Amino acid sequence: MKSATRIPASEHGINPREIDKKARSILHALTKAGYEAYLVGGGVRDLMLGYHPKDFDIATSATPEQVKQVLPSTRIIGRRFRLAHVHFGREYFEVATFRAPHDKTGRGKTSEHGQIIHDNVYGTVVEDAFRRDFSINAFFYDLETGDVLDFVGAMADLKIKQLRIIGDPEVRYREDPVRMLRAIRFAAKLGLTIEPASEAPIRQFASLLDNIAPARLFDEALKIFHGGKAIRTLELLRDYHLFECLFPAAERGLQEDAIESGGDGSFRELVYAALKNTDNRIRKDLPVTPAFLFAVMLWKRVREDAKAYQQEGNPALQSVHLAASDAFSEQVKCLSVPRRFSNMTREIWTLQGLFKFKNQRRVLNFLEQRRFRAAYDFMCLRAKSGETSFDDCEWWTLIQEVDMDEKIAMCQRVTPGKAKKKRKTRQKRRISE
Ligand code: ATP
Ligand code: MG
Q1: What residues in the chain have per-residue pLDDT under 70?
Q2: Could you confirm whether domain 178-353 is CATH 1.10.3090.10?
Q3: 322 and 350 in contact (C-beta within 8 Å)?
Q4: pTM
Q5: CATH class for domain 1-159?
Q6: Residues designated catalytic
Q7: Which of 175, 222, 313, 401 has a 20 to 30 A CA-CA distance from 236?
Q8: pLDDT digit string (tens) for 127-163?
Q9: 59 lines ligand 1 (CB under 6 A)
């Protein structure tokens, strides 16, 4: 199907006022200058499905240099694949020149696994539609006429809420295995079913993700777990054997922890409680940090390994650090973890040992710590999952809420006088109950 079906506003229902004003001004400027320009990708898809888009991307026949001539606030980014970012102060919109399929001129190259490694060939709007991943991501909204252009039969998929990959699924997943993760993400986020032919190769092809740069998988993992539908996505990822490519230690942990395998289910509880919490925070527009995701996903492994290190005679804190280093070195082979997040994750873990100390000096210091809140949230999740005492969670919740006199009184009620202090000598210190 090479000619476009024009879908009028009466059918697609997009109200142009729902499109960001600045994005509209870019579309107007480019068309006025004689170029083709459309709103594309997730922005159009989300509007057609009745969601509020998170960003508005534009595709055009103008090259990045031509975009800059029309819109001087443009910055051209990327060396291998050049993109125009049209700036409005710190905010910017991505304006991409139509791209052709990578094999059109032989300039786009694929690796021995069939993966695209160069993808910088400009093309026509039709070519640009066919190189996109899923049909519903290939709608082109024409602001001037109000029509949506559909080159790939996407409207039929949208009507039955189906996610269909464009072209031969095996070829398209080989070209870019990340499309498998995207399929799961869109299915979970938008409540779509994956068309049978599009889902068929996924389990078998899952290991192709091993060939993807860890930094790209980090970005994808964040979109997946911070997209507001983390639990549903996790279940689909596990079902399609994709989760183990992102978080191998967590997948092993979930398998060992399953009641059928003789586990107590507490790790599953922890992961689910954490993801539910993340989904709630996203819904309320509260900040979320990747450090917390890693703290949760790697916890079972870290806790067990730290115990083993301690049994070998290492001090408690050092045992956590040793276990953390082991866990991160396995993790970064799959997806990379920027140092600022892994450092914070380590802090969340090492602080877990402090919740058992209730004497006034330590408590007041701890409450002032930069990472107290993250460590506390994590400890409460552990309590919820049954791994540690819920009393601790309640005690630490309360002490944050009361005034200083009551804080001191609370500590004194738990550790009256100094009698107990002496008992500390050279006892084995446990890092976690
Ligand atoms: P989101 O809501 O997550 O932003 P999106 O569909 O806009 O969803 P982007 O990653 O912003 O996703 O990509 C914009 C568009 O670029 C997609 O809609 C799709 O048409 C195309 N695209 C993105 N990644 C790929 C890919 N790996 N293969 C082919 N086309 C892609
Ligand atoms: Mg997008």
Answers
A1: 1-2, 102-120, 417-433
A2: yes
A3: no
A4: 0.90
A5: alpha beta
A6: 55, 57, 133
A7: 175
A8: 999 999 999 999 999 999 999 999 999 999 999 999 9
A9: no
